[in-house]
Design goal:
Layout: E1 4-14, E2 18-36, E3 42-47, H1 59-70, E4 78-83, H2 94-109, H3 116-127, H4 133-138, E5 141-146, E6 152-157, E7 164-170, H5 176-181, H6 189-208, H7 211-217, H8 224-227, H9 234-243, E8 248-251, E9 258-262, H10 267-279, E10 285-290, E11 298-301, E12 304-306
Parallel strand pairs: 3-4
Antiparallel strand pairs: 1-2, 1-11, 2-4, 2-5, 5-6, 7-9, 7-10, 8-9, 11-12
Helix pairs in contact: 1-2, 1-3, 2-3, 6-7, 9-10
């Protein structure tokens, strides 16, 4: 095979109380093309305006190399072309698309025959947490739980068609490292119980589409109260979008993108209200009206999809 294309969806993680364990794939995609070259080097080209590394520290290449190393194969020289549609450093899983893209690219191009059950823990090891990479690979909404001896359990979460997504993306970035540094090392038992209960309610709200449950469920005390301080206008936008009909507004991933969940007929109203609220604070923003991606990352060859473990 001379060239393969990998398509990977954006993701939103946490979704309120699901900190570091709950995420959903969204219908916005980065594309990666892989082909072998005769050297031991990596050549990277990027379609899009974002700044990415063009060396071996590029995240897609690092994941590509890890897959070969896992099976004790020499990492070949590779050409990687990337089309960026998912905003970087905005809380929409751009790094997860690179990791999943690199792993699927290596698996297909090198015919490594790694099953998804092997690729998933490897993706988590590269990323450091599961909430973005798991839905990026599997699609849909996914709950990830680590058990004894570090073994992972992945549970698909039903997402009712009545619940629609508006991602409100501001024109400023927020690094994941900074968003993690602001979090406390421990929380009170009261706050832990509060968030645990809200996560349980959130899973039922997503499954049933119950808007009243969803309004309550999206609150948490583990990360959002702290990260909100890093997002200028968070409360203003949250209030405006909720007043326009959103069931709730949460921080997407580490932010600064905010995610509004609402009925489909209210999406544009909610999005416009959120944009207007940010503009009053001299912050430019755009609204992305995104459906749930249910397929996840996949490989194309000559325009035809190939399975993840082929």
């Amino acid at each position: 095979m001379t060239q393969i294309e990998v398509v990977v969806p954006a993701t939103t993680a946490n979704i309120g109380p699901g900190f570091d364990c709950l995420g959903a794939a969204l219908a916005l995609y980065n594309h990666f093309w892989f082909s072998l070259n005769d050297s031991d080097e990596v050549n990277i080209a990027v379609r899009g305006k974002e700044d990415v590394s063009f060396g071996k520290d590029n995240l897609a290449y690092r994941a590509f190399a890890r897959a070969f190393e896992l099976v004790n194969r020499k990492v070949p020289g590779v050409n990687i072309e990337i089309e960026l549609n998912v905003p970087m450093s905005r809380g929409l899983g751009s790094s997860a698309t690179a990791i999943v893209g690199g792993l699927l690219g290596a698996n297909a191009l090198g015919q490594l025959n790694l099953a998804p059950e092997t690729l998933l823990p490897l993706a988590i090891a590269v990323e450091g947490h599961p909430d973005n990479v798991v839905p990026a690979l599997k699609g849909g909404c996914q709950l990830s739980v680590v058990g004894g001896q570090g073994r992972w359990t992945f549970c698909p979460v039903e997402w009712h068609e009545e619940i629609q997504v508006v991602a409100i993306v501001p024109n400023f970035k927020l690094s994941t490292e900074r968003a993690r540094d602001i979090l406390p090392e421990s929380v009170s038992l009261k706050d832990a119980v509060f968030t645990q209960a809200h996560l349980g309610l959130l899973l039922r709200a997503l499954e049933t589409g119950n808007g009243d449950w969803l309004k309550t469920a999206l609150d948490d005390r583990l990360h959002q109260p702290y990260r909100a301080e890093l997002i200028a206008g968070f409360k203003t936008v949250q209030t405006a979008a909720t007043a326009a009909g959103a069931c709730g507004v949460v921080i997407s991933g580490a932010g600064p993108t905010l995610l509004a969940l609402c009925r489909g007929d209210l999406r544009e109203t909610v999005g416009e209200a959120a944009i207007d609220a940010w503009e009053q604070l001299d912050v430019k923003a755009k609204a992305l009206y995104l459906s749930l991606d249910r397929r996840g990352g996949h490989v194309l060859e000559n325009g035809q999809p190939r399975s993840q473990n082929s």
